Amino acid sequence: MWGLGALFYCYAFFQRVAPAVLVTEMMRDFGVGAAIAGMLSGLYFYTYAGMQIPIGLLLDRFGPRRMLTGFALLSAVGSALFAVASGVGPAYLGRAMVGLGAAVTWVGTLKLASQWFPPRRFALITGLTLAMGMAGAVGAQVPLAGAVDAIGWRGTMWGAAAVAAVLAAVMWTLIQDHPDEAKAPVSGQGLLAGLRLVVAAPGIWLAGLYGMMMAAPLLSYAGLWGVPYLVQLHGMSRSDAALSTSAMLIGWGVGAPAAGWVSDALGRRKPVLIGAAALALMSTAVLLYLPGLGVGLRQTVTFVSGAVSGGFVVAFALGREQVPAWAGGAALGVVNTACMASGAIFQPLIGWLLDLNWQGEVAAGSRIYSAAAWDTAFVVLLAAQAVALAMALRAPETYCGHPSS
């Protein structure tokens, strides 16, 4: 059951990262610049992030089975609409529906984990879930680039719609909600009790802001702007650039379960959060601003940056452990809202900074940005990780346990 939820999360991350490979075609077909392309990609994050708190409350009430199945169908419809969009308006709607459908994947899968695995394994299972997401993200790099070359970006989105529909049918058949879990009362007042607990816990907000800032490089660099950056500034082919940015995704997939395992083994959250943020800040600075990196060294540093950034998953355990277990869905929803807001904020922000510093150069219908423009835009990623380090230093220590109900 956890595997099915994780597979849906894998699909969601594929959809999240796919615009990094499709961005040139989207700008060409829809006749837009980087800011609009960033917004088109970022719409996924607006709907995804905006639904995380309601999703958490609904999961506490209705359970993962119905929520995961219904939202998978919504993703299928959104992907199909995006595939046939003839203009920016329908494309906006399709991407928003994909993001809305995917909104349940992370919190829903972690809800399954909290129901069917012991608490001492939660950070590890959280990391393994993220590793599944990274598999989807890697699939949205080189394999997707090959598929786009073969059948076009619209054909690949039709395929994605079919996958979501099949997943919905399988999840409805096989997933079960745990019958013994204590749930919030069924009334509206009872459902909001968990949210009131979450809002009153300062450690949850620190965990959410930490996750938001740590996720910025992956969601913005590997998730959208890394491929055109490497193609335009470093002369790579699209496939080679996609392979290079995949190193960050693979790093996340390796680093997340490792960080979860270390945190569970230590019985502490804070040391892992601090170490991950400090190392992420240093490695991202080297990746983006150290001159003369060869392809092999660049890919190595990209992998390291992703691996240490994967420590952000411990923030979910930290947030969940601020409240009693029955309100865990609400806590996870709040933390994930902040994390997904990272993509909604930083993807369009980088696009806006690129357009602000654009010198008017165009090639094959797409804008070309200078090295100075890329350097200016990417400095926000370093600022984000500096904030993450500050949040880690202020975070409380839960010692891997819930407060009493």
CATH class: Mainly Alpha
Q: Give, in spatial order, the strands making up the sheet with the most strands.
A: 1-2
- The Cα radius of gyration reads 20 Å
> What would you call the structural class?
mainly alpha
**General form:** globular
Percentage of residues in DSSP E strands: under 5%
Secondary-structure arrangement, i.e. CATH architecture: Up-down Bundle
- The domain count comes to 1
Number of strands: 2
Q: Would you give the CATH topology? A: Growth Hormone, Chain: A
State the helix count.
17
Q: Which segments are poorly predicted (pLDDT under 50) over 5 or more consecutive residues?
A: 182-189
Order of helices and strands: HHHHHHHHHHHHHHHHEEH
pLDDT averaged residue by residue: 85
Give the N-terminus to C-terminus distance in angstroms.
27 Å
Helix content: over 70%
Sheet with the most strands, sense and barrel status: 2 strands, antiparallel
- Looking at CATH, the homologous superfamily is MFS general substrate transporter like domains
Give a summary of the structure in a few sentences.
The protein is mainly α and 405 residues long. The chain has helices at 2-17, 19-30, 34-50, 52-62, 64-84, 88-102, 105-116, 122-139, 142-174, 188-199, 202-234, 238-266, 270-289, 295-309, 314-320, 328-356, 371-394; strands spanning 362-363, 366-367. The protein has one domain: Growth Hormone, Chain: A (Up-down Bundle), CATH 1.20.1250.
